[in-house]
Amino acid sequence: MLIHPWDAALEEGEWQDWLAVHDFGQLAVNGLPGEPPHVLPLHFVYDHERREAVTHLARPNPVWAALEANPDVTLSVVDDYVFVPGPWHAPDGVPPEHGTPTSFYAAVQLRCVAHVVDDPQAKAELLHRQLAHFQPEGDYAPVAPGQEPFGRMLPGIRGVLLDVVEVRAKFKYGGNKPRSMQLSDAERLAGRGGPRDAEARAHQLRRLTASDADD
Fold it and tell me: pTM, whole model, 2 decimals?
């Protein structure tokens, strides 16, 4: 993913905070020779202190041979994306239809080494980490090998532990545009009020405020 200086995370905490509330992504796994890559949509839990993400997949999933042959994978998360029409970015004195359209979005890519988890107790512990994140109220029965209701389901899944070796983060919200144009974008996003417009506007204004503070 191309990351221009004006699109890079302002600091590590920016992408960490964003990833903490974006826990659904796509795991890209290289295919075996002659096969296309596997792209798996899934929920996951990222632990910054451990520098790892955890998830699980059904045992019949066709990805296992490829994953074990090459455990170098990428977990990609993209959200808060909007389309910016060309007229919004037409310079002064230029016909609106000559403006260049673009996309605003936030993206984090975790390059990882994947480890398949098959030990029943280790899988149960991995699942508890996920449940604690997604159901913090604790409204779930314990997961333990041989114990109802979930113990009998453990053989049907395999856990995946992802050791993170590199993080690439991008917040593409017009940071290379003049301040006046960025403020105009924010006003137009508020007026349009479409899906994710509010989130994109919040990113743009937050990053613009941080840039102003650095000047």
Answer: 0.94
Taking Cα atoms as reference points, which of 43, 107, 40, 119 lies closest to residue 73? Answer: 40
What confidence score (pLDDT) does residue 190 get? 98
Query: Strands 102-117 and 72-84, how do they pair?
Result: antiparallel
CA separation for the pair 205, 215 (Å, rounded)? 15
Write out the H or E segment, with its range, that includes residue 166.
Answer: strand 157-172
Residue-level length of the chain: 215
Task: Give SS3 for 89.
Answer: helix
Q: What are phi and psi of 97, to 5 degrees?
A: -70, -10
Give the per-residue pLDDT at 215: 60
Helix (H/G/I), strand (E/B), else coil: 144: coil
Mean pLDDT by 10 residues, the chain (215 residues): 97 96 97 96 97 98 96 98 97 92 98 98 96 96 93 95 98 96 97 98 95 69
Q: What is the dihedral of CA 175, 181, 186, 187, to 10 degrees?
A: 180
How far does CA 168 lie from the centroid of its chain?
10
Contact 117, 163 (CB under 8 A): no
C-alpha distances (whole Å) from 70 to each of 43, 58, 110, 122, 138 are: 21, 19, 16, 22, 36
Nearest to 80 by CA among 207, 202, 206: 202
- 74: which 2 tokens? 């990428």
